[in-house]
């Protein structure tokens, strides 16, 4: 059946005003102030007084689980379908992190295909924190070029005691291989960069850009809200045209130790004149949130939440005076554009029918559609993962 969403105020993410939106064949078929279809094979969704938003694009999720810094029993669980859909997330980019031994690329790829079968869109990064980069086909170029779901490499760790302590030449080679692969396959070929809390901050990225022909836009540093010093370093990176991603999953101890909440960080960067096209938020969902003592010993562990992405969007709008357009841009169109996913992160004719219908007064999620299929209704999941009870 076709679906006709009637009378919602549409943020695409730009404000299109009140529109009717017609969905069919997993895509947006039409957008107009009034679409009149009354056939029995058209399902009408009355949305007067509500807002219609694009499905969120989460550019960093540990869909297969992560962690392990405290031993095998501390490996975090896999992401489930409803972990994403209940937070309006309809596209996820899966990654490995610290653990690329018991967490593997074949398992990551299988999980991405499983999420697709369950109803949302999933892509992956090849590689992990470590250098030399772990791959499926022997090298980064082949992985990105020949494996449909691999759109980049990462998250490669820098400025962190858990990283392989790469040098500029090593990082430049990874970026060059990913860039060429992206050109060959029509993909982003992006290099996702995990930035730790070492005082080096983004020094290595600046060195690589200064010493190679690879532009700053080939790198996608995340966790840029880790502390105020790193946020300040982000301003210099943004002036080179580089992207900045802030992480929405956090905990009270991280904040007490100086982490800036993602919504606040987004507002700050916008106030400093960084274009929203260079700014994104991601959840780091299902990653471990480790707490280390001064000697690098693990003393605590929590789990990142994909739903924190939508919560941060709401917080940016409701508490930090960020416009709905800018806040939404950072979790939809910005990551979709950076990752070269032209059918995602927007409401437009021909785009995938990934949509979130929310109450205008409080931004509470009412319905979520992924590729035209209703996944959430009245804030409750109506499509669950294969093994959900």
From TrEMBL:
GO MF, any single term: beta-aspartyl-peptidase activity
Top-level EC class as recorded in UniProt: hydrolase
This protein's record includes keyword NAD: no
Cofactor: Zn(2+)
Transmembrane segments: none
Enzyme Commission identifier(s): 3.4.19.-
Keywords: Hydrolase, Metal-binding, Metalloprotease, Protease, Zinc
Subcellular location: Cytoplasm
NCBIfam families: isoAsp_dipep (TIGR01975)
Role: Catalyzes the hydrolytic cleavage of a subset of L-isoaspartyl (L-beta-aspartyl) dipeptides. Used to degrade proteins damaged by L-isoaspartyl residues formation.
Family indicated by similarity: Belongs to the peptidase M38 family.
Name of the protein described by the UniProt record: Isoaspartyl dipeptidase
Source species: Pseudobowmanella zhangzhouensis
Gene name in the database record: iadA
């Amino acid at each position: 059946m076709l679906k006709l969403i009637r009378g919602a105020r549409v943020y695409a993410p730009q404000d299109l005003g009140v529109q009717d939106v017609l969905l069919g064949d997993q895509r947006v078929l039409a957008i107009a102030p009034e679409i009149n279809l009354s056939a029995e094979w058209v399902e009408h969704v009355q949305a007067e007084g509500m807002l219609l938003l694009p499905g969120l694009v989460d550019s960093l999720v540990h869909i297969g689980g992560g962690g392990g810094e405290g031993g095998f029993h501390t490996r975090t669980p896999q992401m489930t379908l409803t972990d994403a859909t209940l937070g309006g997330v309809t596209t996820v980019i899966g990654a490995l992190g610290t653990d690329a031994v018991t967490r593997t690329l074949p398992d990551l790829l299988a999980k991405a295909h499983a999420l697709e079968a369950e109803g949302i869109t999933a892509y992956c990064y090849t590689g992990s924190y470590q250098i030399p980069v772990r791959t499926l086909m022997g090298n980064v170029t082949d992985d990105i070029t020949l494996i449909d779901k691999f759109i980049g490499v990462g998250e490669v760790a820098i400025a962190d005691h858990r990283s392989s302590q790469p040098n500029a030449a090593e990082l430049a080679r990874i970026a060059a291989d990913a860039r060429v692969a992206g050109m060959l396959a029509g993909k982003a070929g992006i290099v996702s960069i995990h930035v730790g809390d070492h005082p080096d901050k983004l020094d290595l990225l600046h060195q690589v850009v200064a010493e190679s022909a690879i532009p700053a836009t080939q790198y996608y540093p995340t966790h840029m809200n880790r502390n105020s010093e790193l946020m300040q370093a982000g301003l210099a990176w943004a002036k080179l045209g580089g992207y900045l991603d802030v992480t929405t999953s956090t905990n009270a101890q991280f904040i007490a130790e100086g982490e800036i909440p993602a919504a606040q960080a987004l507002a700050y960067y916008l106030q400093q004149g960084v274009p929203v096209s260079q700014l994104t938020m991601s959840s780091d969902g299902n990653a471990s949130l480790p707490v280390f003592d001064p000697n690098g010993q693990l003393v605590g562990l929590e789990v990142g939440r994909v739903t924190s992405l939508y919560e941060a969007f709401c917080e940016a709008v409701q508490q930090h005076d960020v416009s709905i357009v800018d806040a939404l841009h950072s979790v939809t169109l910005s990551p979709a554009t950076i990752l070269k996913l032209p059918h995602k992160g927007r409401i437009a004719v021909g785009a995938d029918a990934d949509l979130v219908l929310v109450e205008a007064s409080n931004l509470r999620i009412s319905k979520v559609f992924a590729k035209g299929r209703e996944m959430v209704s009245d804030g409750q999941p109506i499509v669950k993962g294969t093994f959900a009870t």
